[in-house]
Amino acid sequence: MKIVIALGGNALLQRGQALSAENQLISIRTAAIQLASIAQGHDLLITHGNGPQVGLLALQAESYKDVAPYPLDILGAQTQGSIGYLIEQELANRLPASRQLACLITRTVINAKDPELASPSKPIGPMYSEQEAKQLANERHWAVAADDKGYRRVVPSPTPLAVTNLEAIRCLFDRGFIVIAAGGGGVPVIHESDGEKLKGVQAVIDKDATATLLALALKADCLLIVTGVEAVYEDWGLKSQRAIGRVTANQLKALSFPRGSMGPKVNAACEFVSTSGKRAVIGSLHQIEAMLAGTVGTQIVATI
C-alpha cells in the first residue's frame, strides 16, 4: 500500500510545551516507532508541519539586531532540514539497513496573486496571552489571532499549486525509498516576471494541502493526517463536543471547523478522498498504526 503521512507541527511539539529540541525529539521518536512498524509492509512518503518551529526561529532571529531577520522562506528551508534529519535518523535507527530513506528540501509553487498573501491565517510560534500578543504585534508589526486558549502570530498560508521536485520524489518513492519531503508544506516560491525563474516569499504553506497534492500525484492508497488530538470533533470546546468516527467526505465538508486549526486538515483530507475515492484519516501522534488499521481517528471515505 502507498501511504502519505503528514505529521503536524503541533503533534511534534504539543500545545503549551516548551519549544525545545529535546521535546521535539521525544515526539519524533514516538512517531518513528509506529512508522517503522508500518514501513515493514508499505511504501511511505512522510511530510511534516513546522508552525511552532519556524515561529521559534523567527523569534530567535528577531533577538539578534546586527543583521535583518531571515525571511520565512529561508526559515522554512531550515526547518525542513532540522525536522527531516530527526525523522530520518530515528526511522533509520529502527529499520533494517537495507531500507533506504531520503530527505529532500522541497520548494512549492504558489500564485503570486493568492489572496492569502494579504490575509494571514496560519498560526506559527508559541502561544501568548492577549496582552502579550497585542504588544508583540505593535512592536514587530505582526498579525496575531486567537488560537484555542490564547493568541499566536499568524502569517500568510497560500494554496500550493505544484511541487518543484515531484519527479525526484516519485522516482525515489517508486524504488521503495521512504521519502521525507515538503516539510512545512514546502518552501513557498513564485514565478518571477519572466515566468521561468523562481523566488521565495514570506509565507508558510499548509503542509496538509501539500500532502494532498503529493498523495494524489503519487496515487497513494491512504492519507494519514497526524495531529495533537485523537479525532476531528464536532462542537469542539463545548459540552456537546463529540469525536467524529467514520464519515464521508461530503458529510464532513458540510460541517464548519476553525480556519486556523482543524479546518485546513479537514479540507485537505476531504479533497484527497473526493478526488481519489480512497481513504484519509485524521488522528493522534500516539495512534498512527491504529489510524491506518481503521480502528481510531476520523476515518474519511467516499461512501459508507
Strand content: 15-25%
Shape: globular
What composes the largest sheet? 8 strands, mixed
Number of strands: 17
Helix content: 25-40%
**Amino- and carboxy-terminal Cα gap:** 21 Å
Low-confidence stretches: none
Strand order across the largest sheet: 3-9-2-1-12-16-17-15
Helical region count? 10
Mean pLDDT: 91
* H-E string: EHHEHHEEEHEEEHEEEHEEEEHHEHE
Structural class: alpha/beta
Question: Radius of gyration from the CA trace?
Answer: 18 Å
What layout of secondary structure does this protein have?
Layout: E1 2-7, H1 9-12, H2 21-39, E2 43-48, H3 51-63, H4 72-92, E3 101-103, E4 107-109, E5 122-128, H5 130-140, E6 143-147, E7 150-155, E8 162-163, H6 166-174, E9 178-180, E10 187-191, E11 198-200, H7 207-217, E12 222-227, E13 232-234, E14 242-244, E15 246-248, H8 249-253, H9 262-276, E16 279-284, H10 288-293, E17 298-301
Parallel strand pairs: 1-2, 1-12, 2-9, 3-9, 4-10, 12-16, 15-17
Antiparallel strand pairs: 4-8, 5-7, 6-7, 10-11, 13-14, 16-17
Tell me what the structure shows.
The chain is an alpha/beta fold and 304 residues long. It contains ten helices and 17 strands. An eight-stranded mixed beta sheet has the order 3-9-2-1-12-16-17-15, with helices on both faces. The chain has a four-stranded mixed beta sheet with strand order 8-4-10-11. A hairpin with a 2-residue loop joins strand 6 and strand 7 (150-155). Helix 7 packs parallel to helix 9 (262-276). The protein is globular and about 50 Å long. The mean pLDDT is 91.
